[in-house]
Fold this protein.
Amino acid sequence: MHTETYRILGSPMQRNMYLFVALAAVALAIMGGLYIIQSQTPAGTRILVVSTTTSLYDTGILDLIEDAFEAENPIDLYFISVGTGLAITHAQRGDADMILVHAPSREFAFMEEGYGVNRKIIAYNFFSIVGPGDDPAGIREKTPTEALERLIERGRTGEAVWVSRGDDSGTHTKEIGLWSEVGFDASMMEEEEWYREAGAGMGKTLQIADEYGAYTLTDMGTFLKYSKDGLVTLEVLVGAGEELINIYSAIAVDPEDNPDANFEDAVTFTEYLTSREGQALFESFGFDIYGVSLFNPAVELLSTGSDPTIAAWVAVAGFFEGSECPPEYRRGETNLYRDDG
């Protein structure tokens, strides 16, 4: 196990500088990308800018969805792949028409603050704690709580290393919540030698953890892809369960907050993602390669309760005031909520 400290993000000042530079770089990339797209987009085709979490983008599922959606609609999808925190920031700044993210608490705040509407849960999978096969911390098949407590104990004795995303993403948000549940403040552990921050997307974080023989929290979609492609040798040590459910949602930018947002096409795309065709893409994606689907469709699960246990987990973790999208946050004429009782 390597013992060097790996921190792209260090002090609060460094983190703020990193965030500023990242935002500036992505903003420039967006402007340049949109200019190119607009110059190449056929007449009569509209552009929909979607700010999305890296775990959806990196797995390749959005390429599949883009091809299928654009074949049926005169809409050119343009994805901005960043962590959930930056995805939300882009939408707040008017740089995106909608977001695809996986951090319910952040999503609710986005809606409450007047930025987002027409939220729809589109898919789910599970987070997992992964680590080296020899498992020096001895967390294999423990509960998440037991595993994190053990990691703190073994980390402080020099027997284990943890690599955090450290990038304000949905996975990072989940990690902070898990540490909090066992009574620890992640921000207070940043100065401890065993706790390291990557400040990177999920794929890069997995590779850093693999390099250092460390543990990390990952979404299963990205992990399966990187593992199958031979990019990491880490193993799943703590897997699926209620505490680790990972919910993906689509949210349109509120046209009342940003009249320039392409709200109509955002709704059209959300309706496609939640249609039988769109949900079938989630259900089948990756099965032929990995033997399991990287994502599970959520619409039928929530409308019929086909698996009552998992449906209850999704509702507890992903509903807001008893609904995936309370009525006061719904805009326009849409079939998105026709199954609501």
Remarks:
- Confidence is low (pLDDT under 50) at residues 1-20.
- The chain has two domains: 14-125+245-329, 127-243.
